[in-house]
User: Fold these one by one.
Assistant:
Number 1:
Amino acid sequence: MINIVETYHVPVLLKESVDGLAIQPDGIYVDATFGGGGHSREILSRLGKKGRLYSFDQDADAEKNIIADDRFVFVRSNFRYVTQWMRYYQIERIDGLLADLGVSSHHFDDETRGFSFRFDAPLDMRMNKRAGQTAADIINDYTEEQLADVLYLYGELKNARHLAKCIVSARNQQNIVTTRDLMTALKIPSTTENGQWSVASGQWKKDLARLYQALRIEVNHEMDALRDMLRGATTLLGEGGRLSIITYHSLEDRIVKNVMKAGNAEGRIAQDFYGRISSPYRMVVKMVTPDADEQERNPRSRSAKLRIAEKI
């Protein structure tokens, strides 16, 4: 495994996820979540001269990390379009796809993007800053019922209706445009030090994390994009091709697990005449989590789960 100095994003389960691809030196691979390029560099270190790697990222900031390597192609796009882009590059089959889902440490630490309630910043949360509605648009334009549905479905918040009511009540006085406005609307007790906000209550921290997760998923259509990408991977992977996916919350993990087990995001089980489960995959690794050392080095990894499947 190569050593990399990573400032944009610390790759999670680096060795385990790339090992899971069982890389063939002359194979064709996709890194669906390029980010800081940590996983891509590790894949390239294992490829031969004829190997190829196509790495996707819709965030313009990730382009600063593009790798100068003839075997590497950067695709500035959402990974949901993996099938279309592979067709564009005249690639009919790939040997493996890796995805490190969720939000990179870069996004959480960027004060201007609104992904973290640590900073007073515009409520943006777009992975692609060039298009689409922002979190502020959702907060100010969705009906109370729509807001409650988003917070419940994507944040799994039991108090979703109460939170939605607080938001609507506050926005009737003035638009909610920053992270600080949102905390004020929800009447969350907090303090500030060195330009960062701190929430006193442990329960509020958990609720805020889930609320931000819900808004981010809605802004970026993450669940739909994940389903599309996994459908595309299933079409593109050749026999023996590997799918190596790192998830961070139950919603995306459930979809990944269902696809690997049943071949579809809903987990609908199809059986043959003898009652055997019919699926395009076989599970290679049901689940791997970071060890204590990695969790200590990289707190973001604490909720990570790696699953690996092989196309049959």
Number 2:
Amino acid sequence: MARTNFEQLLQAGCHFGHLKRKWNPAMAPYIYTERNGIHIIDLHKTVVKIDDAAEALKNIARQGKKILFVGTKKQTKEVIAEKATSVNMPYVIERWPGGMLTNFPTIRKAVKKMANIDKLMQDGTFGNLSKRELLQITRQRAKLEKNLGSIADLTRLPSALFVIDVMKENIAVKEANRLGIPVFGVVDTNSDPKNIDYIIPANDDAKDSVEVILNACCTAIAEGLEERKAEKADEKAAEAQAEAEVVEAKPKRTRKARKEEAPAEEAAPVAEEAAPAAE
């Protein structure tokens, strides 16, 4: 797995933190210096942390597990959706639905409701409804799609959360902590990193900063998915080889042997029929 490029992080502005007066003292280990009242993040530490997080994400993906990306900031919505979709992972870029993790069965019911509406639309059932009823259902479907469409394929709890701005998405972080789900977080100088399992100290406001971090992490996830495919292919090949060896190991009868066995098999019933007559 390729290491994160320091220069790319620098050019993307990952090192720009918040104003000094807004800082969280817990982020002190990741701050390099202060310039013009703004904290500068130590990108050497950011590089190490991104590589650690990427390796962990790769392992999760290799096991076939899901990683839920969360970020509802307007400026980062598109890039989160794009990167998560590229590796076939679920994401939340609208308002975080409270209880999404801690009350997951209820969220699944809402997703099923959306699927049922789609089914009714396809089979023509809605043709008998009035325009007003049809409009209400259409609006309900649009609302469900906006909030839950990106997690429609999430049939079970995710194995990890990747959060952009852990302070803004604190409810999501709390729910994950409560369930023991590991949290990967892009943490700025104004945030508290104590509840984050994999801390990535960086600017969480700029689109370019978020994009370069997601590029590195999603590349690692893609590698994990490819390795999983390769492992499955190897397992299938090994199974096919084992079956072929079993077939080859079975003794093959020659044509002559089959001819010699046939008269013997036919003679057996005749002998059995003759036995009572002899008595």
Number 3:
Amino acid sequence: MTRQQFLATFSGLYLTQLLGKNTREKYSAARLLGQEKLLQYSISIPLSKNAGKAFVKMQKAALKEGISLEIVSGYRSYDRQQQIWNRKFIINQAAGLSPIENIQKIIEYSTLPGTSRHHWGCDADLIDGSKSKNGDVLLSEKFHGEGPYTEMRIWMDEYAAKFGFIRPYTNDPNRTGFLYEPWHFSYAPESIPMLEDYLQLPLDILLKTDGLEGKSNLTLDFINQYRLERILGINPLLKSF
């Protein structure tokens, strides 16, 4: 899907959100960093109100095709992301990885707390809830070939954008950043302006944290490179219009 085709799927409010840089309200640093409690759409749909409404519409459309879209992970707070980061760091450390190797291993898929798109409340990891769950459900092979979620992936490839949802981490070999995540989708009308505001935050704000494993190895140079390769290493459709 081209950028023009994507824009053509929206009207009114959506275009204002995407293009109205000077008319919309700016997002707070606390919201962007996952430090502000999100008013979720519902317990089972842990997304913002607007993203949740769009998800329900997409969920109903998918159900007509026998696909039961289920959110495995939606909104994630800064504290929750730090717990995930610290757990992985400690496990990798016990396995003998150096601090730098440890950090590089974690950021193949996981983000530094304060940098996760899940902080924003408009991104979600999805599976087909009608299929049996065995072990880790968020594995690429489960979305391809004979995998249980292949049918869902194919449906999402064709229809998700019509509801405003775009996959950030595609399998494009020219894309930098986090590895391919066929399960991860972002509600573009919110995430695009949120990314714009996020990029205006000072880099050193990500170093002002307590209790983060490996913090002493995180420098401003690292954060700057991380932003270029990881935060901006996304599907072009999710970058500023």
